[in-house]
């Protein structure tokens, strides 16, 4: 995923509460969300289930969520103002 983002010339930040060191620079969750246009959930860590979408939204520039594991309560994120896409559901972005 990182290689694809780089190839497309997109800026990104990576947060994983289970990884302390890796092949890519890691950021805090606050750094990742600050002025972000997208939350891209690529792992099914329980910690992500407890993100408060209203608090997340206050830090972001654009309210867009792409959940690749169908992990989050999408209705809650939509109520908070997010557009939500879920991998593998065959549905369009929910608003």
Structure write-up:
Helix 5 (74-79) links the parallel strand 2 and strand 3. Strands 1-2-3 form a three-stranded parallel sheet. Helices cover 29% and strands 12% of the residues. The chain has helices at residues 2-7, 29-33, 46-49, 53-59, 74-79; strands at 39-41, 64-67, 83-86. The chain starts with a helix and ends in a 9-residue tail after the last strand. The protein has 95 residues and is α/β, with parallel strands linked by helices.
Short description:
The chain is an alpha/beta fold.
Please render the helix and strand layout as text.
Layout: H1 2-7, H2 29-33, E1 39-41, H3 46-49, H4 53-59, E2 64-67, H5 74-79, E3 83-86
Parallel strand pairs: 1-2, 2-3
Q: The biggest beta sheet, please?
A: 3 strands, parallel
* Shape field: globular
Number of strands: 3
Distance between the termini: 25 Å
The sequence of SSEs as H and E is HHEHHEHE
Count every helix, treating DSSP H or I runs of 4 or more residues as helices.
5
Low-confidence stretches: none
The assigned structural class equals alpha/beta
**What is the alpha-carbon Rg in Å?**
13 Å
Mean pLDDT: 92
- Strand content is 5-15%
Helix content: 25-40%
Widest beta sheet: strand line-up:
1-2-3
